[in-house]
Inverse folding.
């Protein structure tokens, strides 16, 4: 069995438990830091908008005995604008000229055809007006808004409003990070990028929903027991779905990586590549946020409920009592802490003092679900 | 569905996995059969893969008509562009609206994309204007063809004075009726069998309110006219660039100059009066073969208001001397035809002349569909050669294959024997997706474009996730100490709910993407939505039943170490039953 498989078993038995919820402040801080970096990056560097936003043309030529610099020279001479030329895996070239009008584009195409010694019809021309990308982006924003509203309504019905809010925040978080990465790395933003970004929405929530589903199930009747606080249960939900989350993310990233590799390797920049690139960044952010942000947020929101507060009090009291008796229900190195709360030896008591006590590990009982 | 009780007896459909499997296999066979039957073995390829031209037009607000961009007008425009593009002999061109103000025109490879683009992108407005003067197309040049009305071209004066014209030609719309240029070749009259209610058979001058003057104010009077004269004199119709700009900024009420090609393919220039009838007034027009006379003609039907206007203009023009007894059909500033008027006409009319089938049908198209309710601007034009499209498709397929292979390797390494189920399910999903895509081509015009390929590849992840959720659940149950068969049944209701909930979110995002986005993005969204739906179908009717059946085999049930379900390796707790914790799984809610 692979190590990951063992990890799954150990996670399941609670032998290994990563205390995502108790350490949530750390992860919030990390996320806030990343988000601020993203926003600063966006403000300072801005996004490198593709020609779809500036207007211009992309010519894709077949293979020919022409160097990149020659092609660039021809394109710039014919258009009077700066041209970006890339060589493609196929031997052809992708020549991008911004701020071009139809007549100029025709001229560039003709001259390129002459220079390359090919039929004019063999050169692909993609000509876009300056407001084209903007229109797509506007629609993307509309889509984003509509989707967010629908999803919040759906999650509020299928789960509860706290989960809906948490999912929404995680979603915004993912988008900010993805856009931030684009700003910081200076990647070109094209309609393909926008599509990728919109797809992330589905993916990001997909992961979150799976965790929430598990959480909803295991937090049922939570008030009828006194062993675990809501945060504990939330943390366990993350852990128990962790293997699935990892597997799913890996499995989703593999085809996207294939797209990215093939798209970039063979065809140069293009829609294939743009979509897969933003998917790649967004998927990673989405997996991260569903584990480190969305679920801890739900726990935070839930712990504000009077019922949950009361539960926590009871749980803590019980644990304190148990600790006072010197009792450990755990075979793994009893280590009652100074505040009398049962903690794992690896978990600092300070973190656990507020909320979200971590269970002792290897608890033999109470593991059935 | 209730979680199966601890007895071995599975309930409901779970007891009949064979039936569900048979169902989906039949569906697959039927779809594949349908594919062969329809002769549609491959999905229809989009322009970006098959090669061709995609033109995106955006409607522009015109001054004075701020609310012109609305659904009705957009749909009218689409209809006009579509019929015109296809009317011009472009096969399988697609025209559709995108969003509020865009029209996408897809023109497959093999058609003259340059020509189509001109037809589509620039064709905007159609007017009927009275002809004031006609001359040969070059500036200050003698008329090439001997003409019975030389004076018209000499001075270029749109004048009442130019009465040197000679041929009243009142009754006979004969093709040989000669003044000059294109006008000579065409005459206008009522259809032979007159469907028109008002007197169209006769030159009923009485109907006309003012058959006397040119509609324009006396041209010689003001400086604007002088400028026009000058412009006319200098106009060189043989210059493309000059012609291209002629129609710009000309208001319907202006007197203007224009160029037109006559039937001998020579350019002529015109001075035209204010527009009196516009394209919207034409209800229908088509090029037809006149069976009796064996020649091509163009018939027109006018709307009610159009009929009134038309009767006004024809009754007046029919009284005029050539060349002023003609009106010009002006499309985007270019004269496409300038027939003479021989009689007052009303609701319907026909243009006869030296038409070929093509020219008659072209003119019919232009007349019927000439008047776009909006003006459009080209937003993007993409031409893709089939070669590049093929390369992109190939790259996409390779990427998909690599992605799929990686996923399979991962699943095999991680899930061992279980991966067999996963791979078969992916295969089932792939077959369903492919056959549906192929069948949806003719059915709803689905075309596989590059983003759609991308969507399909991305969907591999979504499909695989469903198995992962289910497998993990089964393994959890085995860790609980259950044997495989109950584990498979117990895991299902919870896995099912998770799969439905998360697929719903995925589907929702696909639907939103599909509804709000423009152009190519829709292909992506459509594929994503389709595969998400298929994922649900495959998991319910294929993966789950297959799992149930395989759970009965010794290999899986005994927890063979290669089965991926070895209890020992999964860390199952040997003493099985224990009291359930707080979260007793109750009936899972259907999501």
């Amino acid at each position: 069995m692979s190590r990951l498989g063992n990890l799954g078993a150990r996670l399941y038995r609670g032998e290994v438990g990563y205390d995502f919820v108790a350490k949530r402040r750390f992860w919030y801080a990390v996320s806030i830091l990343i988000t601020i970096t993203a926003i600063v990056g966006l403000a300072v560097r801005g996004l490198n908008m593709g020609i779809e936003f500036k207007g211009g043309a992309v010519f894709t030529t077949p293979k020919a005995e022409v160097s990149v610099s020659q092609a660039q020279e021809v394109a710039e001479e014919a258009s009077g604008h700066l041209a970006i030329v890339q060589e493609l895996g196929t031997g052809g070239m992708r020549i991008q000229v911004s701020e071009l009008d139809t007549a100029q584009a025709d001229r560039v195409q003709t001259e390129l055809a002459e220079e390359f010694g090919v039929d004019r019809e063999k050169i692909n021309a993609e000509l876009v007006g300056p407001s084209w990308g903007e229109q797509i982006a506007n629609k993307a924003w509309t889509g984003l808004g509509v989707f967010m509203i629908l999803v919040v309504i759906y999650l509020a019905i299928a789960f509860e409003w706290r989960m809906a809010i948490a999912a929404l925040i995680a979603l915004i978080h993912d988008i900010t990070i993805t856009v931030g990465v684009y700003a910081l790395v200076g990647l070109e933003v094209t309609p393909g990028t926008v599509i990728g970004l919109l797809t992330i929405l589905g993916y990001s929530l997909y992961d979150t929903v799976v965790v929430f589903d598990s959480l909803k199930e295991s937090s049922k009747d939570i008030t009828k027991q006194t062993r675990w606080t809501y945060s504990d249960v939330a943390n366990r939900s993350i852990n128990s779905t962790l293997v699935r989350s990892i597997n799913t993310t890996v499995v989703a990233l593999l085809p996207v990586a294939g797209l990215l590799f093939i798209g970039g390797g063979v065809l140069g920049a293009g829609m294939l590549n743009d979509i897969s690139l933003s998917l790649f960044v967004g998927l990673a952010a989405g997996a991260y946020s569903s584990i480190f942000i969305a679920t801890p947020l739900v726990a935070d929101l839930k712990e504000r409920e009077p019922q949950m507060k009361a539960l926590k009090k009871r749980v803590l009291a019980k644990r304190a009592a148990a600790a006072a008796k010197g009792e450990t229900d755990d075979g793994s190195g009893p280590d009652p802490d100074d505040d009398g709360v049962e903690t794992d030896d690896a978990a600092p008591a300070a973190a656990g003092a507020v909320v979200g006590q971590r269970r002792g590990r290897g608890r033999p009982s109470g593991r059935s679900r | 569905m209730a979680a199966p009780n601890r007895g071995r007896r599975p309930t409901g459909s779970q007891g009949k996995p064979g039936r569900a499997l048979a169902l989906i296999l039949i569906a697959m066979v039927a779809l594949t059969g349908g594919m062969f039957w329809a002769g549609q073995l491959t999905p229809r390829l989009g322009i970006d893969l098959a090669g061709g031209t995609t033109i995106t037009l955006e409607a522009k607000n015109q001054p004075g008509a701020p609310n012109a961009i609305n659904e009705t007008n957009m749909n009218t425009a689409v209809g006009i562009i579509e019929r015109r593009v296809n009317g011009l002999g472009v096969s399988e061109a697609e025209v559709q609206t995108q969003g509020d103000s865009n029209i996408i025109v897809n023109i497959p490879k093999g058609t003259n994309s340059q020509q189509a683009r001109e037809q589509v992108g620039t064709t905007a407005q159609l007017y009927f204007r009275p002809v004031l003067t006609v001359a040969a197309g070059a500036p200050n040049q003698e008329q090439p063809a001997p003409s019975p009305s030389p004076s018209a071209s000499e001075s270029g004066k749109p004048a009442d004075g130019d009465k040197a014209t000679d041929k009243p030609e009142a009754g006979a719309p004969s093709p040989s009726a000669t003044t000059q240029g294109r006008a000579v070749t065409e005459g206008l009259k009522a259809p032979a069998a007159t469907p028109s209610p008002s007197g169209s058979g006769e030159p009923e001058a009485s109907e006309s309110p003012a058959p006397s003057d040119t509609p324009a104010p006396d041209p010689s009077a003001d400086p604007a006219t002088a400028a026009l004269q000058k412009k006319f004199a200098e106009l060189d119709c043989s210059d493309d660039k000059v012609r291209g700009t002629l129609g710009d900024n000309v208001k319907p009420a202006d007197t203007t100059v224009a160029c037109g090609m006559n039937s001998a393919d020579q350019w002529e220039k015109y001075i035209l009066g204010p527009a009196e009838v516009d394209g919207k007034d034409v209800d229908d027009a088509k090029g037809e073969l006149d069976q009796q006379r064996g020649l091509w003609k163009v018939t027109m039907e006018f709307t009610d208001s159009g009929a009134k206007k038309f009767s006004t203009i024809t009754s007046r023009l029919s009284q005029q001397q050539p060349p002023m007894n003609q009106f010009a059909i002006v499309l985007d500033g270019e004269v496409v035809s300038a027939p003479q008027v021989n009689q007052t006409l009303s609701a319907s009319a026909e243009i006869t002349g030296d038409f070929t089938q093509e020219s008659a049908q072209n003119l019919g198209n232009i007349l019927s569909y000439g008047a776009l309710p909006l003006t459009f601007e080209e937003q993007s034009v993409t031409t893709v050669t089939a070669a590049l499209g093929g390369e992109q498709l190939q790259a996409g397929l390779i990427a998909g294959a690599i992605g799929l292979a990686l996923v399979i390797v991962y699943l095999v390494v991680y899930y061992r024997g279980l991966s067999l189920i996963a791979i078969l399910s992916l295969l089932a999903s792939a077959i369903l997706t492919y056959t549906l895509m192929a069948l949806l081509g003719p059915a709803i015009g689905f075309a596989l474009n590059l983003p759609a390929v991308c969507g399909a590849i991305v969907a591999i992840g979504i499909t695989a996730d469903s198995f992962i959720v289910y497998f993990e659940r089964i393994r959890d149950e085995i860790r609980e100490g259950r044997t495989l068969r109950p584990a498979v049944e117990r895991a299902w209701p919870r896995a099912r709910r998770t799969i439905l909930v998360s697929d719903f979110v995925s589907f929702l995002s696909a639907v939103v993407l599909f509804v709000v986005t423009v152009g190519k993005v829709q292909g992506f969204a459509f594929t994503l939505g389709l595969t998400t739906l298929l994922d649900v179908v495959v998991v319910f009717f294929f993966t789950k039943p297959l799992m149930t059946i395989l759970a009965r085999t010794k290999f899986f049930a005994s927890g063979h170490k290669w089965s991926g379900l070895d209890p020992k390796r999964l860390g199952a707790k040997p003493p099985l039953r224990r009291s359930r914790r707080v979260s007793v799984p109750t009936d899972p809610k259907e999501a």
